[in-house]
Amino acid sequence: MLDPAQQLRLRTSPDGRYLMITLADLRALIWDLEGDLTSPNAAPVAEYTDPVPSGKVCGFTADGRLAWVACNNEVHIFEALTARPFSILRLDAEVADACVSADGSVLVTLTVDGSAQRWPLDPIGVAKRRAQGQLEPRELAKYQIGTPDERLRRERELLLSRPTAQAWERLGQIDLEQGDLDGAIACYQAACDLGPHPPKCRGFYVRRIELLCRRLTAGGGDAKQQRADRDHAFEALAQALRCKVSHEELLALPGIDALRSDQRFAEMMAR
Q1: How far apart, in whole angstroms, are the C-alpha atoms of residue 45 and residue 59?
Q2: Is this model's pTM higher than 0.85 or not?
Q3: Exposure string over 234-256, b if 16+ CB within 10 A, otherwise e
Q4: What is the pLDDT at residue 185?
């Protein structure tokens, strides 16, 4: 049983299912009110143990996903059902009160010096606020910020904002992962168009040949498109040979037989 004298504040979640109790022994407990609280084995579903010495201001977000406790000049935000830390907001003065917007997207704090501040509660908004500049896609993924679709969209936006050959290559890889062969070919075309590239970047040309051969083998497009694909493949082949790609590597490319029947292939490989 909890000692009532140790309880600083109680708050229920908006749906009335969960109860948060902040304690003087530096804990915040989340209880499921639909559970059997009379059992001697009753236990909270989550226990936040970061220091909460003055947790007299606390609450839940509108959807009940996050909970928060004010601790002197800090607001500790954590996942309500796991107690996993989400963020710690540090203010210039002690927190007097706080509340969450109706849609759960913003936490508003009021400090004893009369200052009010708005804090975004959506993960991407928090990341942008705390990061210096913009987070890289690998950082968004590492910290599980946003959904996979949101992270992918963010990565595309960043790549398109700085369209280097490497950025176009990565966009082509994304298109391939999404099953968009035509999009991938267009991206590798854009990467190659930024050349001519040095031998260390020969992969642009090799990959372009492979993708064009894949489309030729699949019979994609009309006769005009196929002629254009074949011409583009030979352009890339010329660049690959300039970059000292070995004949063995080229002959091992999947679908390369789509070019071998063309007289240009024998002529270029004989040089």
Answers
A1: 16
A2: no
A3: bbbbebbbebebeeeebeebebb
A4: 95
